[in-house]
Every structure is written in structure tokens, then in C-alpha cells.
Design goal:
Layout (H helix, E strand, L loop, with lengths): L1 H16 L4 E3 L7 H13 L6 E3 L2 H45 L5 E4 L3 H12 L7 E5 L2 H9 L3 E4 L5 H6 L7 E4 L4 H14 L4 E6 L5 H7 L3 E4 H14 L1 H11 L5 E7 L15 E7 L2 E4 L13 E7 L21
Helix pairs in contact: 1-2, 1-3, 9-10
């Protein structure tokens, strides 16, 4: 729009400065508004002939200056139209891709800093981009999602129709990361009504809103302000501890926190006896700390929460990635 306006204004100024070389079929004179009118009809069409250059200088300027500007204006118009159509085509392709995977996809409400980090973690851990759908009302999120190759539904996530278009009723997980706790509560309630079985993860700004979020149907609630505050406090008390915590929260290098299956060879052992640093054990959908007497001996069906190297190293191979049998129940 700015470029088109610049071309129109530049051409109008050229005509206005050389107004004595033009004639108007009404009174013979060309005012500034008539110069703008002549420019508009000349750049967008071939003109109506009611205003025409009559001097040799004006005709020369029309031939060698205004005609190329007309071509540039039309090229700009055509390119913009093609870009819009291509963008709509890309959207249709992305929507078609994730609709084929509906029932396994993840819906991310809010594509700000937290939403992008959540999607980046999912993709880094094996989720296909076609299995992720963004819901956000802003044009910036639309642009960012397109650049990241993600499908996006533009609209308010508190509205049922918007969530239906995102396929929330068939989603396996929903991540809600808007910047307002009241919006998160309404979105959680709507998602839970549309999909009673989805696993809902919500980020809240204030800790006092956690119970309300749980009552609204959230399965997991992350308090962003408290988490940042604790990390800041730890970094102040112990800079090295703060570095370790930041390392654990980062993905792709250094240390990482991961969940893995228990191997057959590890059944009956204590969590402290395993090569991985076990910090918790998941048994019967409950999480136990590694020192809890209930998990003194590991059993079939257990899953382990471990701290390990983000990259597999020769001296620290990742259990369960080399064909070992896992000790799953059944």
C-alpha cells in the first residue's frame, strides 16, 4: 500500500508541475485534484481522455516517465494479487495436511514466545509440523506461523467455532499460552466441553489462578511468573545452580530432562543403580520421587524421569535406543 501510494503521489506531482502542458476538456485548466484524478485513471487504466497532454514536453514525459510508472503500478498490483492467492493456497495445503492427521494433532492456543517455544520443543522431539495447529487472532502470529510452516486458525480461542475449525474435538493435546489468565480460563472451559478426553496444558501468569485453571479442566498448569521468579532467585543465590537449571530447561545441548521406558534388564533394580540419573518414577499414573519407598524396586510398566545428556555419547549411550526390550506391562 505504501509503495502504491508513493507511485501515485510521485506521478501526480509530475503532472502538477507540468500542468500547463495538459488540457482539461471541461475548462482547459488542470488543478491539483485533477492531477491526482488523471494520475489515478492513467496508472490503473488507459485513461478516459478528458485530460490529455498537449505539449511536446508533456507527451515526452508521459511516454518515458509516466508509462514506466504505469507498468510498475500494474506489476505491483499483479504481484500482490498473486502473493495473496499463493498464501491462501499454502494455507489450504497446510489445513489439508493436518486434517488428514486429525485425532493425533496438537492444538497450540497463542503463538507468542511461550507458544513458539512449546512448538519448537514438540518438533525437536519428533512431532511433525503437520500435526501442530496454531490458534491465534493476531496478524503477527499468522505471519510467524506461515514462516514456520505451520497451519493456523485465525480467531479468538474462547469461541467454539474457532476451536472447531482447529479440530479441538479430535486433538490429543491442547496447549494454551495466551498472555491473559481470564482468556486461558475461558479457552480451557471451551476446550474441555468440546473434548473431554484431551490432555490440556495451560500457562498462567499468577499462582493464585492455578486452582481456578484446574477446576476449569486443565490437566497440567505451568505458572510462568513463579517459575521465572524461582529461576531468578536461584541465579542470585547460586549463579552456577541457575546455569544448571537454565541448561535443563533448554533443548538440544548440555543436560535434558526426559521420560523413558524401563528396560527388561532394569526390572527389580533400585532407581539409584541405573546408569541414567533417575529423579522420579511413574507408576500407575502416579509420580514418585526416586527415594520414595514405594519404588525401591522398579517393576514392569514403570516409566523413568531422568536427567541425561542431550546428545548420545559413546560413554553415555541412551537406554532403549539400541533395540533393547522394554518392560511394558502386557
Amino acid at each position: 500500500m505504501l509503495l502504491a501510494f508513493f507511485l501515485l503521489l510521485s506521478t501526480a506531482m509530475i503532472v502538477w508541475l507540468d500542468r500547463d502542458g495538459y488540457t482539461d476538456s471541461v475548462d482547459g485548466k488542470v488543478t491539483f485534484l485533477e492531477a491526482i484524478y488523471y494520475t489515478t485513471v492513467t496508472l490503473s487504466t488507459t485513461g478516459y481522455g478528458d485530460i490529455a497532454p498537449v505539449t511536446t514536453e508533456a507527451r515526452t514525459i508521459n511516454a518515458f516517465v509516466i508509462t514506466p510508472l504505469r507498468v510498475a503500478f500494474l506489476v505491483l498490483l499483479i504481484n500482490t494479487t498473486i502473493e495473496v492467492l499463493a498464501s491462501q493456497g499454502r494455507d489450504m495445503v497446510r489445513v489439508a495436511r493436518w486434517r488428514r492427521k486429525m485425532g493425533k494433532h496438537v492444538v497450540v492456543v497463542g503463538y507468542g514466545t511461550k507458544g513458539r517455544s512449546a512448538v519448537g520443543t514438540l518438533v525437536s522431539n519428533g512431532w511433525a509440523k503437520e500435526s501442530v495447529v496454531i490458534v491465534d487472532p493476531t496478524s503477527q502470529a499468522l505471519e510467524d506461523a506461515h514462516l514456520d510452516g505451520l497451519a493456523i486458525v485465525t480467531g479468538d480461542a474462547t469461541r467454539r467455532e474457532v476451536l472447531r475449525r482447529a479440530g479441538v474435538s479430535e486433538a490429543s493435546q491442547v496447549i494454551i499460552t495466551t498472555d491473559r489468565d481470564d482468556t486461558n480460563v475461558l479457552a480451557t472451559l471451551t476446550v474441555r466441553q468440546l473434548n473431554p478426553d484431551a490432555w490440556i496444558i495451560v500457562a498462567v501468569r499468577e499462582h493464585e489462578n492455578v486452582p481456578l485453571m484446574k477446576q476449569s479442566g486443565a490437566d497440567s498448569v505451568i505458572t510462568s511468573s513463579d517459575a521465572v521468579g524461582r529461576l531468578l532467585g536461584l541465579s542470585s543465590l547460586s549463579p552456577t545452580l541457575g546455569q544448571v537449571m537454565e541448561d535443563l530447561l533448554s533443548y538440544g545441548e548440555g543436560l535434558e530432562v526426559a521420560e523413558r521406558d524401563l528396560l527388561v534388564s532394569e526390572v527389580g533394580k533400585a532407581p539409584q543403580a541405573l546408569p541414567d540419573q533417575v529423579i522420579a518414577v511413574v507408576r500407575d499414573e502416579k509420580v514418585y520421587r526416586y527415594f520414595d519407598p514405594v519404588v525401591t524396586q522398579l517393576a514392569r510398566g514403570d516409566r523413568l524421569i531422568v536427567v541425561r545428556s542431550a546428545k548420545e555419547l559413546p560413554w553415555a549411550p541412551r537406554p532403549g535406543t539400541h533395540g533393547e526390550d522394554t518392560a511394558r506391562e502386557g
